[in-house]
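For reference, the entry.
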Amino acid sequence: MNDWRNIEYLNRGTPVQKEVYTLLRKLNIMSLLADYNPVLVGTVPLGIQVKGSDLDIICEVHDSVKFTDIVSRYFGTMDEFTSVSRVVDGVPRTKINFMAGGWPIELFGQPRPTALQNGYLHMIIEAEILAQLDNDFRQQIITMKTNGWKTEPAFAQVLGLEGDPYEALLMLEKLPRSALYAFCHSIQARG
């Protein structure tokens, strides 16, 4: 399984992943935010990005004011820089967006280890599903994303999951791996 905290894997990936690796290294963003345990999540690490994909970087943020100040110091002059902090379901969240190298970048922080944040958990289960299923499945996801679908709803639709797609994927992530593999095998068999 991939070490998602180290972006070196991007430099060995697709041309788009290599481009993202070069940009992130140029910005030095992962090092500058190292105290916040940043992890690139979403479609680029999975190799299923489509035109218009953004770079989502999650961070463990316990002091949103300090985090915003630090990010503003390094990236505040970037195009389309915005910052919003609010509380959702009792959890403080900070979202900072800007453009760099032609890519929309979103930094998302909350006071939770990055490995326990939903964005990370979604990526982990999506990676495992992609590893288990064939290229036709991957292409279905890419096609849906090209047609405007968000990643999690696209996965849920193709997998036949019911209810809230974000929650449904989190439920799959909690399955024992043998049960997940059996589920993926049943999806593959129904083709």
The chain has nine helices and five strands. The longest strand covers residues 91-100. Residues 42 and 123 are 6 Å apart (CA to CA).
